Amino acid sequence: MSTETLVATGNKAHSHGPGSPVPLQARSERPTSYDVDVFPVPNGREEEWRFTPVKALKALFEDAEGTETPKIDATGPERVEIETVVADALKVLTPQDRPSAIAWKRSASALAVRIPNEAELTEPVHVNVASLGGRGFTHLIVEAGRHSRGLVIIDHTGAGELSGNVEIKVGDGAELRVVSIQQGDHESIHLAQHDSVVGRDAKLKHVVVTLGGKVVRINANVRYAGPGGDAEFLGVYFAESGQHHEHRLFVDHEATNCKSNVLYKGALAGDDARSVWIGDVLIRAAAEGTDTFELNRNLVLTEGARADSVPNLEIETGEIEGAGHASATGRFDDEQLFYLQARGIPEDAARRLVVAGFFNDIIGKIGVPEVVDHLHEVIEAKLARTAQLSESAKAALGQ
């Protein structure tokens, strides 16, 4: 069974039904390869690129050496192993598009973060990735050994054009949280593929927070190496005027009795603010006992912003615990605003409280107070700019 649901706001609806020039394609049928030539330069009409501003990504489609070497380093507790290794040391990831294949080819080495077997980290590992203004490539490996417990935070900053790959391996019985934060400069571009493999009875929590960047496109994929695996994929994004935030997921259920839960929430404000969320879940014939659900919610704060949301579910066996998806895009809940204003809270403050609550259930799961506080500050600053936009619009209309 294959389904597609599309939610679009901004007075420009899409149609991809019979007779559409863009054919629907099963997620598992798309090519993967380490060979760049397998992937032609996108023109924007391909299924996997139809929402993306491909003209802005021209430099990252070029199969050429980078113009800079991005700075990438890591710090963590004493037991964690941090070293530079050859790029193909793990090979959990196989590129799914041209930028990922180029990044694989042009990254001579990878930074590896390894949590030893049975280690229980009491402090997070911090990975800092800084693009210095040119075009560059990165490769990061994160491994959690058997029955280990740990948290890895990846912080992306800078002003350049960055294409990177992240490989994540969660050993049998391990529990790993990976938090990837995108807060590059307003003109930066960041393309990335994150591939994870979850071992037997292992748990992965993968969190993506996208707040900065002109164009950000993150492909996050997970598969299971044994039964009993549990993967939770969470995301928060806030796109302002001129920003394009795109998140794509592929959950590949191929082992028995595994779970997955996907929850992404986004807010948009300002002219040409754009978000795209694509959630693909495949339950293969052998994956009996699967339990999966995915949800995307978008909050449109001003006129001129647009959110596209496409959940897809393919099921090849009926012997499952449950499978579902949902998507919702809308404006402020007037009842919530009325409730708060009736208790003496000014309208602008009430709106900020609603948005903060909208995001809080995801940001709160990061579990690192200083990171959570910083993200709340960034979101608060974005909301303040949104309030200024609203006041300017009212003034222009003479209200």
UniProtKB/TrEMBL annotation:
It comes from the Bacteria. SUPFAM superfamilies: Stabilizer of iron transporter SufD. One of its GO terms (biological process) is iron-sulfur cluster assembly. Residues 136-358 form the SUF system FeS cluster assembly SufBD core domain. Residues 1-31 are annotated as: Disordered. Belongs to the iron-sulfur cluster assembly SufBD family. This is Fe-S cluster assembly protein SufD. It comes from Kribbella sandramycini. The lineage of its organism: Bacteria, Bacillati, Actinomycetota, Actinomycetes, Propionibacteriales.
